[in-house]
Amino acid sequence: MEIDVKLKNLRVHLRRNLKNIIDDVINSNVSRNQGNIKFEKEICVFCATTSNLTKEHVIPRWVFENCTKKFFTTNMNGIEQTYNKTTIPVCADCNNNLLANIENEINSILTNTNLADSFYSLEQIQNIIRWLEIIEYKFQLLEFRRTFKKAKSSEFIEFLKDIPLAIMREEIEFSPEKAITQLRNAQKRVTIKSKVKNINSLVIFKTKNKNFHFFHNINDFIFIELPKFQVALFYFYSRTFENIEQAKDEATKIIAEVYN
Fold this sequence. Notes:
Blueprint: H1 2-16, H2 18-30, H3 34-37, E1 53-57, E2 71-73, E3 80-82, E4 87-91, H4 92-111, H5 122-145, H6 176-191, E5 202-206, E6 213-217, E7 221-226, E8 231-236, H7 244-259
Antiparallel strand pairs: 1-4, 2-3, 5-8, 6-7, 7-8
C-alpha cells in the first residue's frame, strides 16, 4: 500500500537525521547564548534540509475543522495560541508528500468506518497510533520553539523570557537534559514500525458531542474528540496496559478530571 511506503520514508528520513535535529534544537532553542550560535537557517524537523521549508501544522487543519479562532492554552503561563498558528518548519516534500498522505489515510479511516456496526482493523489502529505519535513529536518540538511569555493575568519573571516552554515543566524538574531526553523518546517512537505492543494504549470512544475537544500532556497522553466522525481518541504515549479496559478506565478518569 502507498501509505506503508510514505510511513517508511518518513521513518527513514527521521532515523538518518536524529542527531542533526537534536543538535539544532539545542543550539537554536536551549542554549542561553542563542544570539552567538543560532543556526542561520531553519531546518526540516524530519529530514533536516534547509531547502523549500513550509509551515506544518502541529494539529492538522481538518482536525480542528479549519476554524482559525480555536485555541489551546499553555498551563505554564496562561498564554492562548490558535491551532491555525501552531506550526513548525517542515520541507515541502515531507509536508506535501509524506505527512499529507499520512493525514489523508487517517481521514479516510475515520470517514469510512461506522463504529455502530464495524471497527478498525489492526493495521488501521496502528496507523492511527503512528499518526498520534507524529503529533506528539511535533508538539515537543513546538514547546522548544515557544518561549515563556507574559500573560496579562500572570506574574512574569524577566530571567525566564527566553527559556523554552519544554523546559518549564515541574514534572521534569525544569531540566533541559530531561526535556531533550523526552524529545529523543518521541523521535524514537516515530521511527519504530510496529505498534502492536501499543494497541491497548489507544482508547477509541464513540461520541455524539457536537464540539471539537482537545487536550494533551507532553510525553504522557493526548485526547482528540472529532465530532465530524463521531469518535474520540485517547492515546497514552509512554504507558502500556494488559488490556484495553485498564486503559479505558484510566482515560475516563483523566477526562473527568480535565472537564470537571
